[in-house]
UniProtKB/TrEMBL annotation:
Name used for this protein in its record: SDR family oxidoreductase
Domain NAD(P)-binding residue range list: 7-197
Record-linked InterPro entries: NAD(P)-bd_dom, NAD(P)-bd_dom_sf, Polyketide_Oxido-like
Species of provenance: Actinoallomurus spadix
Length: 211
């Protein structure tokens, strides 16, 4: 497959680029600063310097893709529109080029779900939602943009991310949370996302993923 990855210099984006190349895919990594991409040069890797908030700049990078994966995120706790603006830009670029498949990394912590255990639902998530309220508000608006599009989208909702080694073992659930799923490594998240790309059963679904 030909994959375009937005947010390629982040922890999850880096894992996506590395693993996609290992699996034989052709990868276009869209970055602001190529020096920050911690992936060796590869014959199947095309690094494109572009502002992901600008649809005109992103359009050439997605034009030949079979799928686009957004791993964009905000690292601070202040107000932000990174995820919403990035989603809008990707949707516009994909609509322009006719590319249909879109996967976006969101966050499980912003959604309180009946599948959560009592401690998670009434203690852990309310605290997290207060601390990360700005980032979650941005992510929520990004999800709304994606759901409002006519793309073949999948919104991926992981819990707390770690930098542990990948195990290849994880759980997924469509449109509901995973009881006891409090963390996942970025490596296993990337593995799961790449498995979802060709999986038609995940189209227009919110997929929780966790250890």
């Amino acid at each position: 497959m030909r994959l375009t990855i937005l947010g390629a210099t982040g922890g999850t984006g880096t894992q996506l680029v590395r693993q996609a190349l290992e699996r034989g895919h052709e990868v276009t990594a869209v970055v602001r600063d190529p020096a920050r991409l911690d992936v060796p040069a590869h014959e199947r890797l095309d690094v494109v310097t572009a502002d992901v908030m600008d649809p005109a700049a992103v359009t050439p990078a997605v034009a030949a893709a079979d799928a686009v994966v957004s791993a964009l995120g905000h690292r601070g706790t202040g107000p932000t529109t990174v995820c919403r603006d990035g989603a809008r830009s990707a949707i516009a670029a994909m609509s322009e080029t006719g590319v249909r498949r879109f996967l976006m990394v969101s966050a499980a912590g912003m959604v309180t779900d009946p599948g959560d255990g009592p401690l998670t639902r009434y203690v852990a998530k309310p605290i997290l939602q207060r601390i990360l309220r700005n980032g979650f508000a941005d992510m929520r608006r990004a999800e709304e943009e994606v759901r409002g599009s006519d793309l073949d989208w999948t919104i991926v909702r992981p819990p707390r991310l770690t930098d542990k080694e990948g195990t290849g073992r994880y759980h997924t659930a469509a449109d509901r949370s995973i009881r006891g799923g409090v963390s996942i490594s970025r490596a296993d998240l990337a593995t799961g996302i790449l498995a979802m790309v060709p999986d038609g059963s995940t189209v227009r679904r919110h997929v929780w993923i966790a250890h």
